[in-house]
């Protein structure tokens, strides 16, 4: 393990957050299935939280009408939409926190496992064919420039 890799593993909480974001943005089907299962398993709890606790608190602040079907603003029924939005946000936050914790534990374990490994030097990059050709062309260009300057001086 190189020093750079070990230093990268040291930031396990930062890495856990970026790993969780990568999984969500990458569209990993396995993680999506886990999210759906978690959402279904906790659906009743989250629905109750959204409808019976949060929406009741909001309705008591804005007029006291607890029936979500009767929340109408400019002919739009927003009561059930707000409840569904709160439900979605609670599930999304729960899934993200779960992924964050899983990756944080994984990164902490990896860091502690490799912390005492000997530091190996980073391998020097092998030049590509294009880089080798470019270096050879530069040498030839320098030689041609020297030869042309000697020819000019020789006249």
What features would you highlight for this structure?
two-stranded antiparallel ribbon, transmembrane helix, 155 residues, mainly alpha, 6 helices, 2 domains, elongated, 75% helix
Low-confidence stretches: none
| Residue share in β-strands | under 5%
**First and last CA, distance:** 61 Å
Number of structurally distinct domains: 2
Strand arrangement, largest sheet? 1-2
Mean pLDDT: 80
Helix/strand/pairing category:
mainly alpha
Radius of gyration: 31 Å
User: What is the string of helix and strand elements?
Assistant: HHHHEEHH
Number of helix segments? 6
Number of strands: 2
What overall form do the CA principal axes indicate? elongated
The largest pleated sheet is described as: 2 strands, antiparallel
- Helical amount: over 70%
Describe the structure in your own words.
The two termini are 61 Å apart. 9% of the residues are buried. Strands 1-2 form a two-stranded antiparallel sheet. The chain is built from six helices and two strands; from the N terminus they run ααααββαα. The protein folds into two domains: 3-124, no CATH class; 125-155. A hairpin with a 2-residue loop joins strand 1 and strand 2. It has helices spanning 3-10, 12-26, 29-41, 43-61, 79-114, 129-154, and strands spanning 72-73, 76-77. Helix 4 packs across helix 5 (79-114). It is elongated and about 95 Å long. Helix content is 75%, strand content 3%. By secondary structure, it is an all-alpha fold. The model has no long low-confidence stretch (mean pLDDT 80).
